[in-house]
Amino acid sequence: xxxxxxxxxxxxxxxxxxxxxxxxxxxxxxxxxxxxxxxxxxxxxxxxxxxxxxxxxxxxxxxxxxxxxxxxxxxxxxxxxxxxxxxxxxxxxxxxxxxxxxxxxxxxxxxxxxxxxxxxxxxxxxxxxxxxxxxxxxxxxxxxxxxxxxxxxxxxxxxxxxxxxxxxxxxxxxxxxxxxxxxxxxxxxxxxxxxxxxxxxxxxxxxxxxxxxxxxxxxxxxxxxxxxxxxxxxxxxxxxxxxxxxxxxxxxxxxxxxxxxxxxxxxxxxxxxxxxxxxxxxxxxxxxxxxxxxxxxxxxxxxxxxxxxxxxxxxxxxxxxxxxxxxxxxx
Length: 331
What we know:
Blueprint: E1 2-6, H1 10-21, E2 25-29, H2 32-41, E3 43-46, E4 51-54, E5 58-59, E6 68-71, H3 78-87, E7 93-96, H4 103-111, E8 116-122, E9 125-129, E10 132-135, E11 140-144, H5 154-161, E12 167-169, H6 173-184, H7 187-193, H8 197-200, H9 204-223, H10 232-242, H11 245-252, H12 269-276, H13 286-296, H14 301-316, H15 322-326
Parallel strand pairs: 1-2, 1-6, 2-5, 3-10, 6-7, 7-8, 11-12
Antiparallel strand pairs: 3-4, 8-11, 9-10
Helix pairs in contact: 3-4, 7-12, 7-14, 9-10, 9-11, 9-13, 10-11, 13-14
């Protein structure tokens, strides 16, 4: 089996390295600086227990006839990447591994519904510099068929990823994506302030903003006909959205930062993109709630505010202090 990891950022590089170590014939497809660093010195993986250097193939262009393509580009780059995959003229299984909820549909529109398998990534990693990535949390990958036509391809993906990362088959990948989206709505807060998760979500005002944003996201998704899955995290989000705001903050405010200590330097993928000068995925995160709210006639002031301020920060490169950001919202 030949595997290509299309998008050698933090997650793509980490998964590619693990597959290579497991004996899989895998190639990373990434930007020139990343590929040059890997070819010259290997890929340095800073893991939870140890660091190691992995020497594996890398290229800047997708070629050949891979059997499975792990699509790890950002949400905003899915369509361009799928056009490149279509150029191959072969029939690989394409595993969509993006934040947001659109990637399965966008990939299928270009490649066909029978070729797309969905994967929700529950893992945190950081692209530190070309040739160096860091794993920040343990991982869980949720795999499922977004369309009935692709159900026959799921087993091969499970067999590929299962030995290298904790993986589970989910009956409804769309619900898993909507659940993950609720967590990713907070990405904008870190991107706007420039603060790592451990510090930002321990700030009293930013924690309240986070909870208000998630509550609004859950309620909008439910009213729009999109439910969350049955995971523990989804139950937390649903409870957060039904309790009074004051009680939600009392119950969940101190849990938002998760296992990231106050001195952790980890920032989510949106902040990492900003630091690298890449484009923003916020239209696929908070923008999803804003668009759905407009469609069903429901105001979304928290997600709209974060989307607007996030766009401004990506345009100017100027972060806002917590107080400056909070002035745009009423609780």
